[in-house]
Write a structure and sequence with these properties.
The complex is a heterodimer of chains A (430) and B (269).
Chain A (H helix, E strand, L loop, with lengths): L1 E5 L11 H4 L14 H18 L6 E4 L13 H11 L4 E4 L11 H14 L3 E4 L5 H7 L7 H17 L4 E4 L4 E5 L13 E5 L3 H10 L2 E4 L4 H19 L9 E9 L3 H18 L6 H4 L7 H10 L14 H6 L3 E4 L1 H15 L3 E5 L7 H19 L47
Parallel strand pairs in A: 1-2, 1-11, 2-3, 3-4, 4-7, 7-8, 8-9, 9-10, 9-11
Antiparallel strand pairs in A: 5-6
Chain B lengths: L8 E7 L4 E9 L3 E5 L9 H7 L3 E5 L18 H14 L6 E5 L1 H12 L6 E5 L13 H6 L5 H5 L17 H16 L21 E6 L8 H9 L4 E5 L6 H4 L1 H13 L3
Helix pairs in contact in B: 2-3
The chains are: A alpha/beta (430), B alpha/beta (269).
Chain lengths: 430, 269
């Protein structure tokens, strides 16, 4: 298995009464709550810790893009990733990702991701989310009913920019470019592995599998509440589309907190986890997620009749520690407790790439350091060999210097001098 | 002033070189009158019955908002294309200089049609249209669309507490009704998001049809300040402001709204 510590970079100083006094943590969050002077320490602490994680056993470190958001202060993940690229050596840089419909022209993403891949020596995972309504439609003003079209065009343009070896013209609906000819281009050929974060709609899953990308389920609800319906659908679609059951096609994001014992974990983490859910995800108005123009009438009617997907979102504003832990929205406890729970759902749902969120809400530096250290030392080693016996290759892992290539050690293949693995099927579609 | 309910029939008209079949509700008899509906789609109301007593009312459904035909919206890429499709529809229906009434989103459509094709309409009535923007009078359209459903009446009505919910009485039909109106808003906001300003303010001077602008003084969606913005840009237009009245004029003040419209239409221009 591959393990990535993924950090949203939350603003850790939201007041205790944030959720009572603020309508939303996103879009129209109170400007005055951001303190630029304090942010200097916040940014650098998070970057220090991500760099540290890269030295203690994690395979990847992850960042993402949010705008006008109190629990994600990274409008540009590429800036953070560039800093991390310089100060790390052998971890993958998992950028999950750039909301490609927001870049004008999206060639910018092809260029910046190429730069990150070059600076890091071929360690980039390129994430292409469609983007949430909050970022895409409310903050960046994209028209909801056109977002997917614009995303699809941006995707095609970026892939073509990465894989075409001479200048070409691109006459799209949203992008009119006479000369596309990116300098530089990525080390990883034909392009870095592509991961698509999403919430698991059938159309998105089908696209991912057809293009041979990896699907990242950015669950906010843990594996228990919604895992069954999403992952069963994914593997069933894979079979229908003639794709293998390689667990590395699938990545999953899980909140985790580890301490010496279950009791101690509760003492140390409860208040920070409650803050994370109550002032973070719980402080997004539910209606803002369902902007008209995304889902068609039949899909909306289906959601209304089924009463949603059974997740925790509606209850997060008041979630208690006990609810969070019992539902596995967060997996918390001793190394054995945490490893047992993760191993069970990883095997059940065939997850090859695990993203763990180890810093949440108001969790301070020392506690975060403890969490990532304990996870790396006592949880990760037990889980790492889960898929080794089946002998799958991770075609969705970067092949650059020191990242252990695309192949688990057991399988014996070694990247060649250029960092390329014989099977160049990464990202498939090229 | 009660009017018996008109018999409403569905017509379709092919536009866009055969790409799109536009659905049009038709009722009444007399000279042609086009009605362009607001954001959430076409709802046939007593106002339409009153108009149908004097006119042949043609009420096109914005592409994608006709039940059973959601994909039609994909055939309209830009607001400019939407205007061209409606102008084609007027000719395809054989309407000679119809009167046009546009409400809210439909008001923007009707106003831009009248500005783009100055000879298209005989007369124009704009009921609290969107289409302009002033920084000192922001239009909370995005807030209404994104906010809790319970807040929506507050944007539309001067007295939201007395307005009956627009949902069907049969609970079994509620999910489909919500789904349809949500999709409808997606189809109209395609041309109104995030700010419904397609440069109409730079074209309004081209309108030559006699024009009436009607606004509710308590409009919480499109502030009444916009009445004068339209009024001063459209030469010779008449502005009627209705007190104790919100965005949905004919719901809040049916009698006064009808009086303003009918007296304007009855006059020789």
């Amino acid at each position: 298995m591959k393990f990535t510590w993924f950090n949203l970079m939350p603003w850790p100083y939201l007041p205790d009464d944030f959720r009572e006094k603020n309508r939303s943590v996103w879009v129209d969050i109170d400007q005055k709550l951001f303190d630029p002077v304090k942010s200097h320490e916040v940014y650098n602490t998070y970057m220090d810790l991500l760099e540290y994680a890269g030295t203690i056993g994690f395979d990847g470190i992850g960042v993402n893009e949010h705008h006008q958001n109190g629990y994600g202060i990274m409008p540009s993940p590429n800036i953070i990733a560039a800093g991390l690229a310089r100060r790390t050596k052998d971890v993958a840089l998992v950028v999950l990702g750039n909301s490609i419909a927001l870049y004008n022209p999206p060639v910018r993403v092809a260029e910046e991701f190429a730069m990150l891949d070059c600076i890091s020596g071929g360690r980039l995972v390129a994430g292409f989310p469609v983007g949430t309504s909050m970022d895409t439609n409310y903050c960046y003003g994209q028209i909801p009913s056109l977002t997917r079209e614009k995303y699809a065009e941006a995707h095609d343009l970026i892939i073509k920019a990465w894989t075409t070896r001479e200048p070409f013209a691109f006459n799209g609906r949203y992008n009119k470019l006479r000369h596309v000819n990116i300098w530089p281009r990525p080390i990883q050929q034909p392009h870095p592995p592509i991961w698509i974060p999403g919430t698991g709609s059938a159309g998105t899953l089908r696209d991912i599998l057809q293009r041979d990308y990896a699907f990242v389920y950015l669950s906010w609800d843990g594996p228990k509440l919604v895992g069954r319906q999403i992952f069963d659908r994914y593997w069933q679609l894979a079979a229908e589309l003639g794709r293998d059951q390689n667990p590395y096609r699938l990545a999953f994001l899980q909140v985790v907190a580890v301490s010496e014992t279950d009791e101690r974990a509760e003492r140390e983490y409860a208040e920070h986890l409650q803050a994370h859910y109550r002032s973070g995800l719980g402080a997004i108005p539910a209606t803002a997620m369902a902007v008209p123009g995304y889902a068609e009438p039949a899909a909306i009617e289906g959601m209304l009749r089924s009463g949603g997907h059974g997740g925790m979102l509606a209850r997060m504003k008041t979630a208690t520690y006990r609810e969070i832990v019992d539902s596995q929205v967060a997996i918390v406890g001793s190394p054995a407790t945490v490893a047992d729970q993760i191993e069970a759902f990883v095997r059940e749902f065939r997850i090859g790439n695990l993203l763990v969120m180890l810093q949440n809400g108001s969790m301070p530096r020392d506690l975060t350091e403890k969490n990532i250290s304990l996870f790396a030392a006592e949880v990760l080693p037990r889980l790492r060999p889960i898929w080794d016996a089946e002998g799958w290759e991770n075609h969705w892992w970067p092949r650059g210097q020191g990242t252990a290539g695309a192949v688990p050690k057991a399988a014996g293949a070694v990247p060649d001098a250029a960092g390329a693995v014989p099977d160049a099927a990464v990202g498939g579609r090229a | 002033m009660s009017t018996s309910a008109a018999v409403v029939r569905d017509e379709t008209v092919e536009v866009g070189g055969g790409r799109l079949r536009l659905h049009v509700k038709v009722a009444g008899a007399g000279p042609p009158l086009l009605y362009f509906h607001p954001l959430a789609g076409l709802t046939w109301q007593p106002l339409h019955d009153r108009l149908a007593a004097q006119y042949t009312v043609y009420a096109p459904e914005h592409p994608g908002t006709s039940p059973g035909d959601p994909e039609a919206i994909r055939q309209v890429q830009t607001f400019w294309e939407l205007l061209l499709l409606y102008e084609e529809a007027v000719r395809a229906l054989g309407l000679q200089r119809p009167t046009a009434i546009g409400q809210s989103f439909g008001g923007m459509v009707a106003a831009d049609l009248a500005a783009t094709f100055p000879l298209l309409f005989d007369r124009l009535v704009l009921l609290s249209p969107i289409g302009l923007w002033r920084d000192d009078a922001p239009i909370p359209l995005m807030q209404m669309v994104a906010g809790p459903p319970a807040d929506v009446p507050g944007y539309l009505f001067a007295h939201p507490e007395v307005q009956a919910a627009q949902l069907p009485a049969d609970p079994e039909q509620v999910p489909a009704a919500i789904a349809q109106s949500t999709w409808n808003i997606g189809c109209t906001t395609k041309f109104a998001w995030p700010i419904a300003d397609h440069g109409l303010g730079r074209r309004l001077h081209r309108i030559s049809a006699p024009t009436l602008i009607v606004w509710g003084q308590q409009d919480a969606l499109v502030p009444v300040a916009y009445a004068a913005e339209f009024g001063t840009r459209i030469a010779g237009s008449r502005v009627e402001l209705i007190d104790d009245c919100g965005h949905a004029l004919q719901a809040d003040q049916p009698a006064r709204t009808w009086a303003a419209i009918s007296s304007f239409l009855a006059r020789d221009h």
